[in-house]
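Quarterly update from the structural biology core.
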Amino acid sequence: IMKDGQMVGALGKTLFTDIDTARILNEKLVQLERQLAYYKEEYEKIHSSHYVFGDVVGESEAIRDLKRKARRIAGSVSTVLITGESGTGKEMFAQAIHNASDRWNKPFIKINCAAIPDNLLESELFGYAEGAFTGAQKGGKPGKFELANKGTIFLDEIGDMPLVMQAKLLRVLQEYEVERIGGLEPVKIDVRVIAATNHDLEKMVEEGEFREDLYYRLNVIRIDLPPLRERPEDIPLLIDSLLAKLSTKLRKNIKGISTDALNLLQEYHWPGNVRELENILELAMNMTDEQFLDYDDFPCVVRKVQGNTNGKRRNLLDVLSQVEKDMLINALKETRGDKKTAARMLGIHPSALYRKLKKHDIDLVAGSL
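Predicted structure, tokenized:
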């Protein structure tokens, strides 16, 4: 097309070509961004080990013995099996062992065997070669064992691994080599294996749910973490540590916890262990405007403790509650309803006095006392 003596028809063709080129470039950029996101995620996983033995809070004899044992075996290449109920800190111990070893500056790779579908677990652990299946990433993908080479791999929830995968894992532990799905040659690896479970693997072996030969491969060095209810003397230290951590997270200035509240938390049996303790504290901190957490800030724990005690214990609680109520009334009578003076007489903060008055449904009108 000519206009004013100039050809303009080629312009449309040039723009069309540029648009096609831009679309191709954009598709390549999107693909590169996805690959970058993947490798960034893997890099963060590799460098996700930050706990050391100093982060393991507790001065009970059980915890001191376990930390001594874990430090002693940290430099070994032998497989470690960490057992314990959910929330007892199995991953923290695994990271501390890794960071106390000669591999501390090498990868620490974690994989949760219970969180990955069975049909994807093999490719996650061992990787796959290019073209191994429809949708396989170009160039293939390394598995967690390859990514952990020279470092440590942490197999969390090992008791939930399917039997088929257990057989393949056993071969890796025997030969220290992995073979990608669709791969032609095995890859030699140098990896320290730490496994963890909250299941009774010995019972699972007896019931045919876990391979006996794999169990013995994993159970070379064993660390059994005690539940929180078996070390109540560690609860005050844990509370102090968690309050400091949560105060930063929640941007709150919580200075401590009352004696009544501490006694309550030490009496509770903590089925969720340290993780449950942290959740309970975080809830209480979110619901209070005070600087100290008190007995009444843990209503769910109060209900559970009272519900789990026998009649004799409930009677004792009733007696103690009545004594507290009588002391409050007597203090207010002596001070003629002056709550600040009454709080000072009882040795508690005025805000605590208000909560206790509300708890016992004591009328604040002086004439009613």
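The first strand starts at residue 2 and ends at 3.
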